Amino acid sequence: MCFIVTGLIDVRYALALSQSTPQLFALTNFKCQLFTRILNQQTNQTMSTQRKSIPGIIMSGLVILFMLFDSIMKFIQPDEVIEGTVKLGFQEHHILPIGVIGFLATLFYIIPRTSVIGAILLTGYFGGAIVTNFRLDQPLFSHILFPIYISILMWGGLILRNPSLKKFLLNHQTLNNE
Q1: Measured between alpha carbons, how far is 36 from 42 in angstroms, rounded to an integer?
Q2: Considering the domain boundaries, does residue 177 fall inside one?
Q3: Confidence bin at 170 (pLDDT 50/70/90)
C-alpha cells in the first residue's frame, strides 16, 4: 500500500480504477515508485549521517566528560586541586572563576546551536593551560601538549557531528568578489 503525498491516492483504489482508466493507474504507479525512491534516498542519507556522527558524538562526549569533571572539581575544591592550582602559580581564590569559565564554555559546547562558540571558548581555555604548563617547564607530551590532544578531540568531534562545518572550515575555494 502506497500513499502519494500530493494527492493521498491509495494504490488499492487506483487498482480498482485502473480497469476503467488505465492512464490513471500508470500515473499513480509512477508517482508511487518516485515517492518510494525519494523516501529510500532520504532514509539512506539519514542513516549514513547517523553512522558518521557516532564517532563525533563519542569524541565530543569524552571532551565534555573531561571538562565537566575538571569544572566540578574546581567547584568542590579538594586539597589536590588547591595544591595543583597553587603549584601552577595561581592563588586559591582563582580556582572558582577558572572553574566557572570552563563550565560555561563546556555548556556552550554541549548545546548544538552554540557548539562552535563553545569550541572557540574552550580553545582559548586550553591555550591558557598550554602557556601555564610551558611557563613552568612541565614535560612536553604529558602536560604541555595534553590540551592540544583534547582540542583535537573537541574539533574533530564537532566536525564529524556537523558536516556543514567541515565544508566551511576546510573549503579551499577562493571567493571571487570582483
Answers
A1: 10
A2: no
A3: confident
Contacts with 143 (C-beta within 8 Å, 6 or more apart), sequence order: 133
Predicted confidence (pLDDT) at residue 9 exceeds the cutoff of 50? no
List all residues 6 or more positions away from 110 whose beta carbon is below 8 Å from its beta carbon.
64, 118
Q: Confirm if 157 and 52 have CB atoms less than 8 A apart.
A: no
Instruction: Confirm whether 133 is domain-assigned.
Output: yes
User: Which positions ≥6 away from 96 have C-beta within 8 Å?
Assistant: 74, 75, 77
- For residues 142 and 76, give the distance between their C-alpha atoms in angstroms, rounded to a whole number: 25
Which residue range is the domain that position 85 belongs to?
A: 55-169
Q: Which residues contact 55 (CB under 8 A, 6 or more apart)?
A: 157, 160
CA 167 to chain centre: 14
Whether 24 shows a pLDDT value over 80: the answer reads: no
pLDDT, mean of residues 143-158: 95
Q: Which three cell numbers stand for residue 40?
A: 529510500
Q: Does residue 73 belong to any structural domain of this protein? A: yes
Nearest-angstrom CA–CA distance, 24 and 30: 10
Mean pLDDT across 61-74 = 97
Q: Which three cell numbers, joined as nine digits, stand for 108?
A: 556552550
Instruction: Give domain status of residue 7, yes or no.
Output: no
- Alpha-carbon distance 28 to 108, whole Å? 49
